[in-house]
Design a protein that fits this description.
By secondary structure, this protein is an alpha/beta fold. The protein folds into two domains: 2-140, Leucine Aminopeptidase, subunit E, domain 1, CATH 3.40.220; 153-459, Zn peptidases (Aminopeptidase, 3-Layer(aba) Sandwich), CATH 3.40.630. Helices cover 38% and strands 19% of the residues. The strands form five sheets. Strands 5-6-8-7-11-15-12-13 form an eight-stranded mixed sheet, with helices on both faces. Strands 9-10-14 form a three-stranded mixed sheet, covered by helices on one side. β3 (63-67), α3 (75-93) and β4 form a beta-alpha-beta unit. α11 (354-367) crosses α15 (450-458). The protein binds ligand BES and zinc ion (2 copies).
Length: 463
């Protein structure tokens, strides 16, 4: 190692990876450059450790041991780094391989070498380790569902996943099928799902009761389009396979509920998944249709590809009317405009409540899942006025697409403190974007939002 250093082969630059083979088959030592010390923090640690894990995975390693750098001082700083290293171990080693005949290497576990000076704090760190391991394992579990192909991950299958989860971790799960949706007046979900003869829509509700004398309740609502072809307003073929990821919001709802139940967060948490397949056929909904939603408000359908807001109109209004939650948060791969505005690593945040927005931004800063707040103004509200119905689902001009979609959703939350996360960009990675992503975001579903919303719930869900 000294020789490598003296020859200038080790510089410590960020992203530099060097592998040493230890004598006598004692394993390998992977050194990853962290860059300048002044810029070292949780995110740098998460990225560097994930790179190391990926490197080792490719070489058939099964166990990884990390060491917290000795210059990291203070309880809060150490905790933050430990969380990042645990994240990296789980998220960085993940690969969707269940359909591969010959899966590549797996890493069973990560042990953290905490160092002698930290031994005294081991019990406090033990709690952090257990908590973050649960979150990491939950992200992996969520990605496995998010990556399922659209022939398999139908609305009914997502409902089954919710039922199975409910039995495993103790959640009350209710599934509404198309007959029940018709009785309830959820004509938005029905309209979007009407084109699919093979995969009918479902509304799924998961109920985690909270801990102790529960005061707060939070509803997490997710867009669950199992495949978005655009419907009659059909999309071009290029990268259409990515539209299996249009269920990512609903899938992240599953992950959040799993984390909430396993970590026994204080607030009551309701998960609501609006699941449908958007495909063209003789039974599809059409541009020009007017749909009366659960809330009673009518929607003029202008573009059947703006289907996410239509299924969410029922899911949001149902969550608010049925449970009167203190807070509603929705997660949706809602608009291509989100990706244009913020890129594919950052989610767009729109909120009608300052404290809620602040709390989510704080949670995002802690987890490293980037979130950026966007404005919602009367300009966007006016743009979605309809000549024929209460609101229209699209406008003729391509301006402010993320925000006109948000103005649409706002109609269905009443006065409830509400936050909308447009995760169209960060919900998944593509071959084109993969090399610009940190190593803890492998190809495919990322389960974006699970760690941030879980953190928000662990913080007591302020608003
Ligand atoms: N699922 C898409 C949004 C999307 C696009 C997510 C790309 C991830 C990557 C959504 O249903 C959609 O098609 N939105 C349209 C809305 C438009 C018709 C108003 C869009 O963004 O183009
Ligand atoms: Zn669409
Ligand atoms: Zn969509």
């Amino acid at each position: 190692m000294r020789a490598a250093w003296e020859r200038g082969e080790l510089t410590g630059q960020q992203n530099e990876v060097t592998v040493f083979h230890l004598d006598g088959g004692a394993g390998r030592l992977v050194l990853v450059g962290l860059g300048p010390r002044a810029r070292y923090g949780a995110e740098a640690a998460r990225r560097a450790a994930a790179r190391a894990v990926r490197k080792l995975k490719g070489k058939g390693a099964r166990t990884v041991v990390f060491r917290v750098p000795s210059f990291v001082q203070g309880r809060a700083r150490v905790e933050e780094i430990v969380r990042a290293l645990v994240d990296a171990a789980y998220l960085g080693s993940y690969e969707f391989s269940q359909y591969k005949s010959e899966p590549s290497g797996t890493i069973d576990s990560a042990r953290l070498a905490l160092g002698r000076e930290l031994g005294r704090r081991a019990s406090a760190l033990g709690r952090v380790l257990r908590e973050e391991s649960t979150l990491g394992a939950t992200v992996v579990w969520t990605r496995e569902i998010g990556n399922l192909p659209p022939d398999t991950a139908s609305p009914a299958r997502l409902a089954e996943e919710a039922r199975t989860l409910g039995k495993e971790v103790g959640l009350k799960v209710t599934v509404f099928d198309e007959k029940e949706l018709a009785r309830m007046g959820c004509n938005g979900i029905l309209a979007v799902g009407s084109g699919s003869t093979s995969h009918p829509p479902r509304l799924v509700v998961l109920d985690y009761p909270g801990r102790g004398r529960v005061r707060r309740s939070v509803a997490i609502v997710g867009k669950g389009i199992t495949f978005d072809s655009g419907g009659i307003s059909i999309k071009p073929a290029l990268r259409l396979q990515d539209m299996k990821f249009d269920k990512s919001g609903a899938v992240s709802v599953l992950g959040v509920l799993r984390a909430a139940a396993l970590l026994k967060v204080a607030p009551r948490v309701l998960g609501v998944m609006a699941c449908a397949e958007n495909v063209p056929s003789g039974t599809s909904y059409r541009p020009g249709d007017i749909v009366r939603t659960f809330s009673g408000k009518t929607i003029e359908i202008v573009n059947t590809d703006a289907e996410g807001r239509v299924v969410l109109s029922d899911a949001l209004a149902y969550a608010v009317a049925q449970y009167h939650p203190d807070v509603v948060i929705d997660l949706a791969t809602l608009t291509g405009a989100e990706t244009v505005a913020l890129g594919d690593d950052t989610a767009g945040l729109v909120a009608n409540d300052e404290r809620l927005a602040k709390a989510l931004l704080a949670a995002s800063a802690a987890t490293g899942e980037p979130l950026w707040r966007m404005p919602l103004t009367d300009y966007h509200r006016e743009l979605i006025q309809s000549d024929f119905a209460d609101v229209r689902n699209n406008i003729e001009i391509p301006v402010g697409g993320m925000l006109t979609a948000s103005a649409f959703l706002e109609h269905f939350v009443g006065g409830t403190p509400w936050a909308h996360l447009d995760i169209a960009g960060p919900a998944y990675t593509t071959p084109q974007t993969l090399r610009f992503q940190p190593a803890y975001q492998p190809r495919g579903a990322t389960a974006f939002g699970v760690r941030t919303i879980a953190r928000y719930l662990l913080d007591g869900a302020p608003a």
